[in-house]
Amino acid sequence: MLFRSTLDPGGDKIYISNKWAPAQNLKVRQAIRTALDPKAMIQTLVQGNGEVNIAGIGPAWGDWTLPTAEREKFYPHDAAAAKAMLKDAGYENLPVDILYSTGSGQSFLLFAQMVESQLKAAGFAPKITTVDDAVAFDRKRKADFELHVFGGSYRPDPDGNLYATFKCGSSLNYSQACDRELDPLLEKQRTTVDPKERQKVVYDALRMINDRSLGFVQPYVGFSTDYWRNNLKNYYPHMYWGFGLKYMEAWLDK
What we know:
Helix content is 37%, strand content 20%.
């Protein structure tokens, strides 16, 4: 039996709906991010086997993500500072509903509970609402939620996790967040041929997305482990959604 353990290119997300009026205030979104403690999540949810993550392009993408120290700065985990941000935005004990779907499994429920606890300590009044998968999917498509804990899919090129997810009006922009200063960066990284120059544009986009807490917050990421038998030849785990393409050129050695 062969196996390979790698950082999950997806990761757990906290979607922040732009239809939720308080989230249209930058300070509220930043307060949510400031309240979170990704290192505690890593210890509790993945037994310490993970890394601090960011929305968009995480550490599984290697050089396409921001350096570790910079990623960690987005999560100061300061409850007092989060309360002050809320107060500046005109809110105290701000009610917030955290949507959780039953099909997501126990790990996501624990994630939702940690989010609830950390937000409560930072001046929010959170509660978890549990619905079935069909309801959750429908509400996600319509941005009919306040916060929604859900998994992250991924694509092999950074563009797949940037343009489709954060572009104004994109069908995969489930939070319906829209920042007209970000859109030109999303377009530019698509047309920049030189890898080093493109990397700079991607970094600028990631800094804007995470500083402004646009769309969702993605505080931590764990590891995924792939297993396959020795007689499965020409197979190797790849970083993209779905299994079909992974097996197109694989074959069994009897």
